[in-house]
Design brief:
There is one protein chain. The protein is of the alpha/beta class and 122 residues long. It has a single domain (8-115), classed as NAD(P)-binding Rossmann-like Domain (Rossmann fold, 3-Layer(aba) Sandwich), CATH 3.40.50.720. The protein has helices at 28-51, 70-75, 77-83, 91-103, and strands at 8-14, 55-63, 112-115. The protein has a 3-stranded parallel sheet, with helices on both faces. It is elongated and about 50 Å long. It comes from Zootermopsis nevadensis. Keywords: Oxidoreductase. This is Dehydrogenase/reductase SDR family member 11. InterPro entries: NAD(P)-bd_dom_sf (IPR036291), Sc_DH/Rdtase_CS (IPR020904), SDR_fam (IPR002347).
Length: 122
């Protein structure tokens, strides 16, 4: 964007609610660490773009569990079925969060949106 001298723009980084906590399930500790890193990189990018006086906004979207085939593909159908017994979001919920940030006035910076199902504890 900067190379093309864009005056306005919006960058979204997809994060996770695990960027804000460490899950008690051991194997997710490293996943949470990567999402903490994405959050920090997003903040750094936002600061850098502000320092050089661009109007490029940077937003982190941190959804909870979202319905997808990731668990089925990576861990098999049994894990997939177990995971999705828990409340989860639809991909359209994440899209709505992005639309919200995009529809904000150009002078408004939406730093972060955290979304999760109403029934979710984590």
């Amino acid at each position: 964007m900067r190379r093309r001298n864009a005056k306005y723009g919006h960058i979204f980084n997809l994060c996770s609610t695990l960027a804000h906590m460490v899950h008690p399930f051991g194997p997710l500790h490293f996943y949470a660490a990567t999402k903490h890193a994405v959050s920090a990189l997003t903040d750094g990018l936002r600061q850098e773009l502000t320092e050089v006086n661009t109007r490029i906004r940077v937003t982190s979207i941190s959804p909870g569990l979202v319905k997808s085939n990731i668990f089925k593909t990576c861990l098999g159908p049994d894990i997939h079925e177990t995971v999705y017994k828990k409340p989860s979001l639809d991909p359209s919920d994440v899209a709505s969060a992005i639309e919200y940030a995009l529809s904000s006035p150009t002078h408004v910076q939406v730093n972060e949106i955290v979304i999760k199902p109403m029934e979710s504890l984590a």
